[in-house]
Amino acid sequence: MTGIRLAPTSPGSRIAGLGHYRPEKVVTNDDLAQIMDTNDEWIQSRVGIAERRFASPEDTVATMGATAAAKAMAEAGMTPADIDTVIVATCTAEVQVPHTATQVAALLGIRAPGAFDLNAACAGFCYGLAAADHAVRTGSARTVLMIGSEKLTSWTDPADRATAIIFADGAGAAVVTASDTPGIGPVAWGSDEQHTQTIHIPDRSGRLFQEGQTVFRWATSAIAPVAIEAAERAGVSLADIDVLVPHQANLRIIDAVAKKVIAAGARPDLLVGRDIITTGNTSSASIPIALDRMRAAGQVRSGALVLAVGFGAGLTFAGQVFVCP
């Protein structure tokens, strides 16, 4: 009997480039107060958001993802010919068929890649980064374009104070390629099957529903241990972590997670991504957008050790340590 032959493996993978896209339209809390019973003080005290970005009618999950991806490829020095796999994490695709990854590949001129979407909601970027890392290290892929792209405003009731003040649009992308020195740590992931309906869209024409208080209590208790486990799996001390980038769900959740991670051993001066203040909650796009904007502001240097942790509908969660490009 002939045995199965496996592809040559790589000792590790790394992020070679990052990119992001935020739509031009800025929506302030005062703008929202014109269409619902709310105000700037109420919104900022509860979720920490001052403004967010809403996509134009011309922006789609695919076009936003392609724009972010092109920036990541440029930083990595990659051409479309270098990409052999495209992964898009999204929970807001306009259509189910065709899937978004093939549309992004077509927009960028990437020929015949392996291409698929995944839906882990707001944990999508971390799930997708793990999938890209696994594909590269097992030899299934050489260079992966990993994208988180969301148009949440298409699925949110604009008059629903529980969701419309939080969710926004945008995309972030990373190029993942082989590395002799591991640059992405093992993923710590899982789900909470007791809360599957806590965040949901009831049907094809429905709008996103969220039990905000339930999600808040769950996230502030369950997510810091995931971040800590991700560092343990990567074999690094929390004191070695330079940057913590949680999913940008709610500023109070971000601060609660950071406080627990610092109490567990991270440095008191740990940099923490708080991009939600001016970008809002962009689900699977929030982590790469937050990190890329911190880099652009000169807050995070190349080579910094990043601890990312995503969490969202499902309820799903995932985290990993990686080296910032």
Automatic annotation (TrEMBL):
The keyword Membrane applies. Pathway: Lipid metabolism; fatty acid biosynthesis. GO terms for biological process: fatty acid biosynthetic process; secondary metabolite biosynthetic process. One of its GO terms (cellular component) is cytoplasm. One of its GO terms (molecular function) is 3-oxoacyl-[acyl-carrier-protein] synthase activity. Its EC number is 2.3.1.180. Keywords: Acyltransferase, Cytoplasm, Fatty acid biosynthesis, Fatty acid metabolism, Lipid biosynthesis, Lipid metabolism, Membrane, Multifunctional enzyme, Transferase, Transmembrane, Transmembrane helix. Residues 248-252 are annotated as: ACP-binding. Pfam families: ACP_syn_III (PF08545), ACP_syn_III_C (PF08541). The active site is at 122, 247, 281. Residues 116-192 form the Beta-ketoacyl-[acyl-carrier-protein] synthase III N-terminal domain. Signal peptide: none annotated. InterPro entries: ACP_syn_III_C, ACP_syn_III_N, FabH, Thiolase-like. It is an enzyme of class 2 (transferase). It is found in: Cytoplasm. It catalyses: malonyl-[ACP] + acetyl-CoA + H(+) = 3-oxobutanoyl-[ACP] + CO2 + CoA. PANTHER family: 3-OXOACYL-[ACYL-CARRIER-PROTEIN] SYNTHASE 3 (PTHR34069), BETA-KETOACYL-[ACYL-CARRIER-PROTEIN] SYNTHASE III (PTHR34069:SF2). Catalyzes the condensation reaction of fatty acid synthesis by the addition to an acyl acceptor of two carbons from malonyl-ACP. Catalyzes the first condensation reaction which initiates fatty acid synthesis and may therefore play a role in governing the total rate of fatty acid production. Possesses both acetoacetyl-ACP synthase and acetyl transacylase activities. Its substrate specificity determines the biosynthesis of branched-chain and/or straight-chain of fatty acids. Belongs to the thiolase-like superfamily. FabH family. Homodimer. This is Beta-ketoacyl-[acyl-carrier-protein] synthase III. It comes from Nakamurella leprariae.
